From TrEMBL:
Record domain BON: where: 65-133, 142-209
Record-linked PROSITE patterns: BON
Keywords: Lipoprotein, Signal
Species name: Congregibacter litoralis KT71
Alphabetized InterPro entries for the sequence: BON_dom, Lipoprotein_DolP, Transpt-assoc_nodulatn_dom_bac
One family name in Pfam for this protein: BON
Protein name per UniProt: Putative periplasmic or secreted lipoprotein
Keyword Signal (UniProt): yes
Keyword tRNA processing tagged: no
Length: 209
């Protein structure tokens, strides 16, 4: 018995002959609008070149910092069970890494350096770990409140680059990371020091001037 073979129906042509003039007109108009947009953009910046902000992290740098923070916490707890008895805070800004919190023994402070130093993209380590009992939930809540208040003041201030600063509070001590000029660093530190609840301000900036 002969097998039946079905022939696929050809797809319809997307544009009929009568539609071609309308399509050509639409394409021409779209091209004109695109060129006008480019012209407007160029006119906006015709007075000078577009320059990068040296204090801004690139997208890749932001991802690298997040990776450093995650790896540091995971690797520290994996390296020694005694870290579980303390409280660890790790923050990174453009490879400048802060390790803060409390550990039960002095030996763990050095061990923290050794572990974090092996992580890719780490450029500098600030070890602010204290040999003490882990901070209480109330203290941590207060630290969060202080850090948020300082950050809010920096963001709303007219002469402080709040978006380029990372604020960390630990046991009343405020640590400041970011890429700023020295003049900006002075203003930021002064603003942070004037915030109620702050006991001390520690600058960990990367200077861009």
């Amino acid at each position: 018995m002969a097998r039946r073979v079905s022939l696929a129906t050809p797809l319809a042509t997307p544009f009929s002959a009568s539609a071609l003039p309308r399509f050509a007109l639409a394409l021409a108009l779209s091209s004109l609008l695109f060129l006008q947009g480019c012209g407007s953009l160029l006119a906006t910046f015709e007075s000078g070149a577009i320059e990068d902000d040296p204090g801004e992290r690139t997208f890749a740098q932001r991802i690298a910092d997040e990776s450093i923070e995650t790896k540091a916490i995971v690797n520290l707890h994996a390296a020694d069970d005694r870290f579980d008895q303390g409280h660890l805070v790790v923050q990174s800004y453009n490879g400048y890494v802060l390790i803060a919190g409390q550990v039960p023994q002095e030996e763990l402070r050095q061990k923290a350096n050794d572990v974090v130093r092996k992580i890719r993209d780490v450029r500098r380590i600030y070890n602010e770990l204290e040999v003490a009992a882990a901070s209480s939930a109330m203290t941590r809540a207060s630290d969060t409140w202080i850090a948020n208040k300082v950050k809010t003041f920096l963001l709303t201030g007219s002469d402080t680059p709040g978006l380029r600063v990372k604020v960390v509070a630990e046991d009343g001590v405020v640590y400041l990371l970011g890429m700023v000029t020295r003049a900006e660093a002075d203003r930021i530190a002064e603003e942070a020091a004037d915030t109620s609840g702050v006991q001390r301000v520690v600058r960990l900036f990367e200077y861009i001037d």
